[in-house]
Amino acid sequence: MAARTRRIKFPTMAATVGTALEWYDFSLYGTAAALVLPKVFFPSQDPTVGVLSSLATFAVGFFARPIGGVIIGILGDRFGRRQMLLVTLLLMSVSSLLIGCLPSYASIGLLAPVLLVALRVLQGLGAGGEYAGAMLLSAEHAPPKHRGLNASIASVGNAVGSVVATAVFFGVQALMSEEAFLSWGWRVPFLLSIGVAIAGVLIRLRVTDSPEFTGAVAEHGVARSRFTDMFRLGGSRIPLAMLMSIAPNVLSYLPSVYALSYLATSVGAQSWVGLVGIIIANLLKVITIPTAGWLSDRFGGKPIMIIGSLAGAVLFFPFFFMLDTGTPVIIWAALVMIFTLCCDMTLASQAAMMSSLFPVRVRYTSVTFSREITGALIGGTLPFLAATLTGSLGGAPWLVCIYCAVLCLICAAGTAKLPRVGPGTDDPAVTSTVTSLR
Q1: What are the extents of the domains in the chain?
Q2: How far apart are CA 326 and CA 273, in angstroms?
Q3: What is the model's pTM?
Q4: 422 or 200: whose pLDDT is higher?
Q5: What backbone phi and psi angles, to 5 degrees, belong to 8?
Q6: Residue 350: what pLDDT?
Q7: What is the CATH number of domain 2-436?
Q8: Which of 287, 410, 414, 402 minimizes the C-alpha distance to 344?
Q9: 10 CB neighbour count, 10 Å cutoff
Q10: pLDDT, tens digit, for every residue of 27-73?
Q11: pLDDT grade for 272, boundaries at 50, 70 and 90
């Protein structure tokens, strides 16, 4: 047990707890967008139109993420990871609190969805720099041979935050009638964000910035890099890292967001079935993500990413077949299969590779840019496109399966072109090149 404690550093745990608290806000919106917001902010005689409108606001937050990621990344490379993590926390928590205070469409008409979109944009700006900052803070505090493990654990924070958000949402919904929940009960989980913000700030104030970053500042001074320096120093790694980020988005947001809508509209399952499945899948991530991070330290992140991407490409077809049974246990197994096992191999290996792929002076900017551009184009649009494709076939999901499988194959191909860097690398020249650019 003592050996394990040394492998996982205190800054990693503190950053992960902060990420869990912050991801509570982001995950909460995804659940609400699938199950509640269509009725409160986008009422329509056609339920499909309401769902599509709500999922479009989910996508809006993703398109704000690259902008927030680049701004926060540049500032993080200049002033440190820790300070930016406090900024992202406040952005997301305050936005969620205000969403819980918004009047409904029935009260103020079109102004309600307009304000909802504006607050979703603020959430996206904060989310754009959050995960990368927590991942880098954890990785840069860790010894080289445990870098992948520590970097991957930030994803556990995402999972725990999602569990708490889903559990709170489900708990509040279960304690009241549907009428009361749609009237005011859905606001309670959002209003709790004020407590999330306070707890997160207190935790992150205890963490120092990474020795790797502070050492670079001490040696070379505060970085004054321009945005274009990211492309000059990152070279071909930037577009390849963008391709590598495809599968983590597909394997995350298809099961955790769109599957909830699909279960409700196409399968006719009660909302609690999908919510319980998401809770189960996320709880298991506490084990599977660190395990995948450890495997990345042992064998390199590259093969783990490729395996996870290829497995997802093959398993989307049985995934929807299992959802269509309408049987809770089978549905839960399907969610674990994609959202836990396949997804976690890609999330952990992505963190392990990203944390060693770029020079320190442009690392935060490079990671946020490559992750969040892909997140906007793939993760943000996936639930909306999946709903559109399914609707065009009268509820049949096979076009969605093909689309997601192709995306995962593209991810595997892009990852195969990346050099292996960091712990477990078999290409010392790459590591020395990255080091020389710092």
Answers
A1: 2-436
A2: 9
A3: 0.79
A4: 200
A5: -100, 115
A6: 93
A7: 1.20.1250.20
A8: 287
A9: 12
A10: 788 778 777 877 888 776 556 666 666 667 666 777 788 888 889 98
A11: confident
